């Protein structure tokens, strides 16, 4: 534990002003008054810039569960989580929609998120402060330990790293700055991040590389409670339901009229050749799956990030096999209103309601669809299916079934 003592000496100055234990026994009178007096505090976080939307959703869950679990234990009741605006996502390529930071309400039902964990949108926080400029007190830049298995074991640990070089972007806001940047090597469960938070008595604490801390309990009951609270915005649900009703002839949540496929291409088709099929291989596998599941089905919905030319080829091959092929093609208006992020969610919702779903191996876009199907109560065998490579091994997808 040498690093801890090093750390304590290096933090002696800042710790001296820390009188808040952030801890008291729930149900005790003294506790209630103490908490009432405590100032509201805020945790900000950001994620490694190249990470996509659906991995970011999982990172959100880790932070939201960290907040919610602490409150369940009667602790940290003055801490809130700031929802990081959606900005400059690598996969959002539509050039002509303006590149501004988007609030979570564009995509999610924020009231539902709030019912699970104490979260606020950044613009809500802005509107509470009188100043024109927002200053975060301390930014911890999380970093991996160079060797995760020191002495052959994966210990949960953290350590201040004095060699630190980081340029923060704050979701494109020029009027957000930070007073102090501290780099921290971190490995292990996210609940351990409270130790870092409690190093100072600051009001606004931020973490960069929020993807580094792990879930305390992936797939647990609280994991699913949090996951259920991540409802999409009304607008997106309505758009998807309208499409399903008009094109795929289903009104309920559990449809029997079509099958859906998440056909991930782009970087997956380039960098993961051993995991994804060719276009021909894709149509053959879809055909086989339909014949096996329910040979009466003729409607196939394809969600994809593929190029137009690839989509046309897949469509033609499936048509030749006798299927009706559907894509959600947004109008210019839809695109302006829903943005790339919203269009992708509409694709996901349409996939979620299908009689049978086939996903792409190790795609978080696919994982989020599978989770929503678990929440709706689909038979797991209709959900955990994947496209296989044309040749070679095809591992079965892991089944993360719901825990009630
Ligand atoms: N509209 C649409 N976009 C997709 C589809 N598949 C991938 N994308 C885009 O590509 C991104 C992929 O990144 P991510 O969400 O991290 O998922 P992963 O990379 O597949 O694990 C998504 O967020 C979308 O922006 C799809 O089927 N439809
Ligand atoms: C920072 O600037 C944005 C516009 O770019 C504005 O909406 C926001 O309210 C500003 N924040 C503060 C704290 O004034
Ligand atoms: Mg990704």
UniProtKB/TrEMBL annotation:
Transmembrane segments: none
PANTHER family referenced in this protein's UniProt entry, alphabetically: GDP-FUCOSE PROTEIN O-FUCOSYLTRANSFERASE 2
Entry's Gene Ontology cellular component terms: endoplasmic reticulum
Name of one Pfam family that matches: O-FucT
Keyword Cell division attributed: no
EC number(s) given by UniProt: 2.4.1.221
Claim: Glycoprotein is one of the keywords in the record: no
Keywords: Carbohydrate metabolism, Endoplasmic reticulum, Fucose metabolism, Signal, Transferase
Domain of life (superkingdom): Eukaryota
Pathway stated in the Swiss-Prot or TrEMBL entry: Protein modification; protein glycosylation
Organism for this UniProt entry: Bicyclus anynana (Squinting bush brown butterfly)
Class of enzymatic activity (EC top level): transferase
GO-annotated biological processes: fucose metabolic process
Localization per record: Endoplasmic reticulum
Protein name as annotated: GDP-fucose protein O-fucosyltransferase 2
Catalytic reaction annotation: L-threonyl-[protein] + GDP-beta-L-fucose = 3-O-(alpha-L-fucosyl)-L-threonyl-[protein] + GDP + H(+); L-seryl-[protein] + GDP-beta-L-fucose = 3-O-(alpha-L-fucosyl)-L-seryl-[protein] + GDP + H(+)
């Amino acid at each position: 534990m040498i690093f801890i003592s090093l750390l304590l000496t290096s933090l002696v100055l800042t710790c001296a002003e820390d009188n808040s234990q952030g801890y008291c026994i729930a149900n005790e009178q003294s506790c209630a008054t103490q908490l009432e007096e405590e100032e509201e505090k805020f945790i900000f976080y950001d994620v490694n810039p190249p990470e996509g939307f659906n991995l970011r959703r999982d990172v959100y869950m880790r932070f939201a569960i960290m907040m919610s679990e602490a409150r369940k234990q009667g602790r940290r009741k003055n801490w809130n989580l700031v929802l990081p605006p959606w900005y400059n996502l690598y996969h959002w390529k539509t050039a002509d929609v303006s590149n501004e930071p988007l609030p979570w309400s564009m995509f999610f039902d924020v009231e539902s998120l709030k019912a699970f964990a104490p979260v606020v949108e950044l613009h809500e926080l802005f509107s509470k402060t009188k100043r024109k400029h927002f200053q975060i007190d301390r930014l911890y830049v999380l970093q991996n330990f160079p060797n995760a298995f020191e002495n052959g074991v994966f210990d949960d640990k953290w350590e201040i790293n004095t060699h630190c070089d980081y340029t923060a972007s704050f979701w494109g806001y020029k009027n957000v700055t930070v007073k102090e940047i501290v780099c921290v090597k971190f490995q292990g469960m996210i609940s351990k991040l409270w130790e870092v938070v409690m190093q100072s008595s600051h009001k606004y604490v931020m973490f960069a590389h929020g993807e580094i801390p792990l879930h305390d309990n992936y797939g647990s009951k609280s994991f699913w409670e949090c996951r259920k609270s991540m409802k999409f915005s009304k607008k997106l649900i309505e758009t998807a339901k309208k499409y399903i009703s008009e094109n795929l002839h289903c009104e309920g949540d559990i449809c029997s009229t079509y099958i859906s496929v998440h056909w991930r291409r782009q970087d997956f088709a380039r960098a993961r050749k051993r995991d994804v099929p060719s276009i021909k291989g894709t149509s053959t596998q879809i055909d086989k799956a339909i014949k096996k599941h329910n040979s009466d089905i003729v409607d196939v919905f394809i969600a994809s990030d593929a190029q137009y030319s690839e989509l046309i080829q897949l469509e033609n091959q499936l048509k030749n096999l006798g299927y009706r092929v559907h894509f959600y093609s947004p109008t210019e208006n839809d695109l302006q209103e829903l943005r790339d992020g919203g269009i992708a969610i509409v694709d996901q919702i349409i996939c979620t309601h299908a009689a049978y779903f086939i996903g792409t191996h190790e795609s978080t876009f696919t994982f989020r669809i599978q989770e929503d199907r678990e929440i709706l109560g689909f038979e797991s065998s209709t959900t955990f299916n994947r496209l296989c490579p044309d040749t070679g091994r095809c591992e079965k997808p892991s089944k993360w079934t719901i825990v009630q």
